[in-house]
User: What shape does this take?
Amino acid sequence: MKERFKQWFPIRSGEYGLVFTLGFILFANYAAMGITKVVSVSGFLSQVKDHYILLVWAVDMVLLVLATGIQSLIVDRFDRVKLLAGVLLVFFALYAILPFAFITKFIPLSISYTLIYLLNDQQWRFFPVVFWILVSDIYDPGTGRRVMPVIGIFAFLGTIIGLGIASLDAKLMFGPVKLLILNAAIFFLAFLLCRIGLRKIKIGIAADTQVSMKESLSEGWEFIKTVPAFAYLALGMLATGSVMTILLYDTLSDAKLDLGAGFQSFYANYNLIIALVSIFIQSLSAGIIERIALKRSFFVQPIMMTLSTVLNFIIPGYISSAFSQGISRVTYDTVDLSARKAFQALVPNEKRGRVSMFIDSYLPSAGTILGSLIAFGIISAGIAFGIPRGEYSLVYLGVGILVAGLAIFSAFKTYKTYDQSLLSWQLKRRTRAASVLDRLKFDEDDD
Assistant: This one.
């Protein structure tokens, strides 16, 4: 039993304190997200036609790209512990202000729920980038592959607690004001823990940090273009963002149509099931990556996403669409996330933040914008020409299958160029780490 525990949670003596401190901060973020995620989506869909949420997603991603542009300027300039504390404090302030949108009643409910959704989604994209860059700086690649999946489990635990509260809200009707205040309190506690628990962590700041936004973005993009495996991984993230958007919309639309007033309860329980499954898969992520090798682990999510999209195309209804989106979401948030973070740990400290912005934020966001606009255009045309919903939904799902195929192609090219990319001068590690070639296991052959 003890050996099995060590296999699932490979934490060594002396690492528990830092791992649990980082884990709780991650837990707090995802608990707050879980609380408002369901409320914002169900509240918005209760006020407008369901396909208009695609436009909200597109606008949301544009805002995120702009915010990430600013973030890319500061992520490699400042002490990352203080930066994380600052992000927590900003989210605390925003959640403390938002209740007034409902209390004053001067703002229409559709806009108020949209504001919650926009904040929730910015939180989903923005916070993990800052958090995981800090974690990548704290741990070397070998240790990172071992402890990052364990830290990631706290995200799913937080999600479970948050979604559990959202599920209770569907029955007990706490209301958005109380939930927003609770989120503000959660972020304030996380801020205090960050300032106290991580005060001894010192991360060096690159000397050449005084660059403009254009230079910052150019440097990150140039790095990705010149390292083949990162270039193909970037293409895969763009494709994944598009397909995941189409699958999520189809799930929400089918569930709202079939369940009506029971949508919020379903959506909370559905996300809760995804979180529970994700905890189990995440506990296996480190072992999966070690067993199949890092370069092969990039196949997992695209293959599962393609198969689930095909399933959704063949079998109609909210159960099929929910299952398909859930499978894709679980693999994206577990094995794929751990693999990406382990790979990004090879990027030098002074460039990692900018590279991570492209891989984890810009490109998935751009994919979401494309997926949203394509699906919205297909749906709007279908409605305008009187095409039945069941028929035009097959069109956007068919597009999803094609784009998912592009993601598989990208994973294949990442695999083929992986060993070559490891030799790139761009991946030279900071001086406190040993050579990349010494730290990686070269039992990864090309058969």
Remarks:
- Residues 349-384 form the longest helix (36 residues).
- The chain is about 80% helix and 0% strand.
- The chain has one domain: 16-200+210-439.
